[in-house]
Write a structure and sequence with these properties.
By secondary structure, the protein is α+β, with helices and mostly antiparallel strands. About 20% of the residues lie in helices and about 35% in strands. It has a 4-stranded antiparallel sheet with strand order 6-7-8-9. Helix 4 crosses helix 7. The longest helix is centred in the middle third of the chain and has 13 residues.
Length: about 350
C-alpha cells in the first residue's frame, strides 16, 4: 500500500432537481462531498447519480451516526469493514446500488481502500471493484478534524443547505403557482408575493434566490433589492427566461448552487439553431434537452443528447425543428445545470456558470 498522503476535505455539493412537462421529477439534494487531493471524489466516478451520507436533509441523529462511522468510532455498517461513500439520492436502499469502501486505521493514519459498487450485503471486488480509485491514505489528525466539525454542538452549519428557498415575484399567478409546485416537488421551498412590503427581515434572510417575472417593473425590482440589502440577506436574482417550467426550474437550481465554479462539471453552454456547445471539466453523464414554445404557448421537449462526455468542449448538431421559435437548451448533470436561450445569430454566444438573465 502506498505511503503517500492524500488530502481530505468536505465541500458543499448538490444533486440537482429537475422537472419535465410530463410531470416526472428528480429530487434536489444538498450534501457534503469528499474532496480528495483538491478534487471532489464524485468526479472520479464519471456517470454516477449519488450523494454522500452527509446530506443536509437527514435527521441530525443519522448524520451523527454517519460521521462517527467515518471516524471509526462506530462499527462499520456493512460486512468486511465497509462503509457507504455514495448512495441513492432518492432513498437509502442498498439495493439501488452504492459506492462502498473499506475504511481502516493504519497507525495514526486513516486509509480508504477497495472501492466497489455494491447492491447487497457483500461486495464483489473482482466484478464491481473500482480500479484506479484509491487507496487513499489520510493524516489522521487532519481527517478527524474535518469530520469532527460536523459534530460540534450536534450540527455544523456547513452540513445544511445555505438557503434552499426562493421568492417568486410576478404577475402571472397561474405560471407562478405551477413553478412553486414544481420546485416544492424536487425539494426547493417557494413562496409567491407581488412585492416584499410587509415581509420581515428574518423572513427575507431565509431565501437564497429571488425570481422576477418579466412584467415586474424596474421600480419594484429596485425596492425588492433594497429590502434584501437592508435585511443583510445575500441572495441571487433570477430574471425568468420564459413561462416554461423546466427552464425556470433550471435557472433557479443554478442560482441556488453553492458549488464554486471551478468544482462544477458543466462550465459553459451556448446554443444556436445549428448546434449546442457544452464544456465539461471532468468525465460526466450529460443530458441536453431543448424546450420550445409554439404559437399557442404550448411547451415542447426534445432530448438532444444523453451520453458520457469526456473533459473538454463538445459540439452537438441540433435538429432545427427542436429549436424552432422561442427555444432554450438545458445542460443537465447530476451535480449542476446550465440553461441558455437559442440564439439566431452566428455561433460565439456563450453562457458560463452565472445564472442566465432574461419568469413570466
Amino acid at each position: 500500500m502506498s505511503a503517500e498522503y492524500a488530502t481530505f476535505a468536505l465541500a458543499p455539493a448538490i444533486r440537482t432537481g429537475a422537472v419535465s412537462p410530463s410531470g416526472s421529477h428528480r429530487t434536489h439534494r444538498d450534501f457534503l462531498d469528499f474532496v480528495v487531493d483538491g478534487r471532489p471524489l464524485l468526479f472520479r466516478l464519471a456517470d454516477l447519480d449519488a450523494v454522500s451520507p452527509l446530506a443536509a436533509d437527514i435527521p441530525p441523529a443519522i448524520l451523527t451516526e454517519s460521521v462517527r462511522g467515518l471516524l471509526l468510532e462506530a462499527a462499520a455498517p456493512l460486512e468486511g469493514g465497509r462503509h457507504l461513500i455514495y448512495g441513492c439520492p432518492e432513498c437509502d436502499d442498498l439495493g439501488c446500488g452504492a459506492v462502498t469502501a473499506v475504511i481502516e486505521r493504519d497507525g495514526e493514519d486513516i486509509v480508504w481502500r477497495d472501492f466497489a459498487w455494491q447492491t447487497d450485503d457483500t461486495a464483489d471486488l473482482d466484478f464491481n471493484g473500482y480500479r484506479g480509485i484509491g487507496p487513499y491514505r489520510f493524516r489522521g489528525d487532519r481527517y478527524r478534524a474535518e469530520l469532527e466539525r460536523l459534530l460540534r454542538d450536534g450540527e455544523d452549519e456547513t452540513a445544511t443547505p445555505s438557503h434552499r428557498r426562493v421568492l417568486l415575484i410576478g404577475a402571472r399567478a397561474a405560471v407562478l403557482g405551477k413553478l412553486a409546485a414544481a420546485l416544492r416537488t424536487i425539494g426547493i421551498g417557494a413562496d409567491i408575493v407581488q412585492d416584499t412590503d410587509g415581509v420581515t427581515d428574518d423572513e427575507l434572510r431565509g431565501y437564497g434566490a429571488v425570481a422576477f417575472g418579466r412584467a415586474v417593473t424596474g421600480e419594484v425590482r429596485a425596492r425588492v433589492r433594497h429590502c434584501f440589502r437592508r435585511a443583510g440577506a445575500d441572495v441571487a436574482y433570477v430574471d425568468g427566461l420564459a413561462p416554461v417550467i423546466p427552464v425556470l426550474v433550471a435557472q433557479i437550481v443554478t442560482a441556488l448552487d453553492p458549488t464554486p465554479p471551478e468544482r462544477r462539471r458543466v462550465t459553459a453552454l451556448a446554443a444556436t439553431v445549428a448546434e449546442a456547445t457544452v464544456e465539461v471539466s471532468s468525465a460526466v453523464g450529460v443530458q441536453l434537452v431543448a424546450y420550445r414554445l409554439d404559437r399557442l404557448y404550448r411547451t415542447h421537449e426534445k432530448l438532444l443528447l444523453d451520453d458520457v462526455l469526456e473533459p473538454g468542449t463538445h459540439r452537438i448538431p441540433l435538429d432545427a425543428k427542436a429549436v424552432k421559435g422561442a427555444s432554450f437548451v438545458v445542460a443537465r448533470t447530476t451535480g449542476s445545470e446550465l440553461v441558455v436561450p437559442v440564439v439566431r445569430r452566428s455561433a460565439g454566444h456563450r453562457a458560463h456558470t452565472d445564472p442566465p438573465a432574461g419568469l413570466t
